[in-house]
Structure formats: structure tokens, C-alpha cells
Amino acid sequence: MELIASLPWPGNKSCRVLKLKRGRYWRWKNRYDGTLSSLEDRAPIAQIRPHALLPEERQEIICFALDNPKERHRKLSFLMIDQDIGYFSPSTAYQVLKKGGAKPWVSLKKPMRRQDIEVTGPNQVWYIDITYLKVNGRNWYLIPVLDKYSRLIVYWELCWTMTAHDVKRIVDFALEKEGLHLQEQKPKIISDNGTQMVAKSFKKFLKDLGIKHIRIAYRHPESQGRIEVFFKTLKYECFYHGEYQNAHEAHRDIEAFIHYYNYQRLHQGIGFVTPYQKHIGRADAIIAARKAKLALAKELRKALNRGEKVKANPMPEMVGHSVLI
Question: What pairs with residue 146 in β-bridges?
């Protein structure tokens, strides 16, 4: 650089004579502080990161995670969007929680095999199954009907027996609840091969109603994976937490949990909406509203990081709570 400076030509002409790129010369000249280390090439670093989270947004993620310790990063992200607390993608929440020392992931298991029946809407395929719940030393039997498309518990009963008559009654009430008795097209029913499900009276009952009965392979509960997952969820999030003296107490807690499961609990398998929202056709609107909020929050964050002025409440009503009802 001293040589170029001593030449009688402009710097650009000196670079041409020495076959030195002009950009490199001026970069060296601007960086040189008297030491050779100042001339070393460095990776370019952005002075402004327009999409970086604001400090208060990072704190919101951590605080919300502490208030909801049972939820993982994906569900936390969508809950915060739905409640208008913050607007981040699940991957962003993951990185913030991981950096903060939390455990934002869960161990994944091999996916279970299921009946390969395509559904495009509610009440096309139902699962029915039985699980026992021990109450004060005696087995009681939970028999739910679960919709494959929405994961909604259409109808359920806690019974002291598990006969074909019980199963017929529950299917009958499920059809009545959904207003399907007079419909020509009724749901297909998937069940295992329990004595109740293969009983002649149950077969005749379904045939008289025009319902197709699909029985899974023997000793392969994975084919009913969706309802098996519901049983596990109910037991670990509700039933195992209580000590019940009678069936009335158990019924009370199960009823409250199934209401929560249908109307409040975000379900990972259907895009983190509730089964009821999926069942009534609101899921697509909710997911679209979340994407709109994320896109708007991204632009807002960019503006704030650039020091631009923004409105106090820029979220439009079109992506507000109204779509979640």
C-alpha cells in the first residue's frame, strides 16, 4: 500500500499496473491499522439482522414455556400465536429454548401402522375400542367412538360391562349425536376382534344400519393407532393422576378431560388445532391465520430492528381471535 501511495498515479491505475484488484486494495487501505493481522480476510457479518428476535420476544418464549412446562416447542409456538402473545415459528421457539437450557424436543418412536383408508372429512370413518380403568379395585370399561378425520371423541361411556349390547348402544348414540341416523352414507367402523365386535348381534346391528365393519388384523393394535393414542393420552394426562373411590368420581374427571381434549387441547396429528375445530371445518382458516400472523410479525420485527416506526397494534382483525371460535 505504501508503494501504491508513493506512485505518481491514482490508486486505481496503480492497481492495474500491479495487477491488484481495486476492491482488495481499498479494503486493505480502509482496514489497515499498522498490523498485518488487520489485513486478514474475514467472513462478512451483517451489521443489522432485520429478522432477529427482539430481546423481549425471547423473554416471552421463555416465560411462556415456564408457565406451560408440559408443552413442547411446537405446541408452545401455536398456543402463543393463537393467544396473541408472540409470533414465532416452532423452529425459532426450539432454538430459544435450547439456548436457554430447556429441553424443547421429545423422543420420537417408530410410526405405527394404520388402516390405509383415506378420509376427506368428518364422519367417514370411526374407530371404536375398549380399555379398562381400575376404580377402587374393580375394572370399569371406557368405550369411545373416535372420528378418524378430526380425532374428535364423538360419543363415549364408562360402563361396568363390555358386552355387544354396550357397543351397539354407544354406536347408536354416536349416530344420533351427529344426526346420521337418516343419512344414507354412514361412517365405516374400524374395530379389533374382541368378542363384542365379532358377535352376531353386533354384525346384524351394523348391517341393518348399512354400516361397513372393518376389523383389524389379530394382535395388531397399531392398526387402531389413533384411538390407542387417545387411551394413552387420557390415562397419562388425566386418569393416573387421581385416586377414585367410585365410578362417579372417575366419570366426572373423564368427562372433564374429554371436553378439554375435544375443545381445547391442540392435537399434533391434525396441525395443532383442536379436534372440534377440525371437525367443523375451521382448521384451514386457523392455520392460515397463524401463517398471516407470522408473516406480519416478521415484517414488524424487520422494521423494529431497522429502527423504523410502527403502529402500536399492527395485527389486523382478519388474523385475530375470531377465526379460532
Answer: 127, 153
- List of residues 6+ apart from 221 with CB closer than 8 A: 192, 228
pTM summary value: 0.73
Q: Which ranges of 103-224 would DSSP assign to H, the alpha helix?
A: 164-177, 200-209
**What would the grid cell of residue 42 be?**
474475514
DSSP secondary structure letter of residue 195: T
Closest by CA to 127, choosing from 160, 111, 110, 151, is 151
CATH architecture classification, 125-265: 2-Layer Sandwich (3.30)
Cβ atoms of 77 and 93 within 8 Å: the answer is yes
Contacts of 27 (CB under 8 A, 6+ apart): none
pLDDT digit string, tens, across residues 62-89 = 999 988 888 888 999 999 999 999 998 9
In this structure, what C-alpha cell is assigned to residue 189? 367402523
Domain boundaries defined on the chain: 1-39, 55-100, 125-265
Q: Are strands 138-147 and 131-135 parallel, antiparallel or unpaired?
A: antiparallel
Q: Which residue has the cell 429478522?
A: 51
84-110 pLDDT, tens digit per residue, is 999 989 999 999 998 877 766 555 555
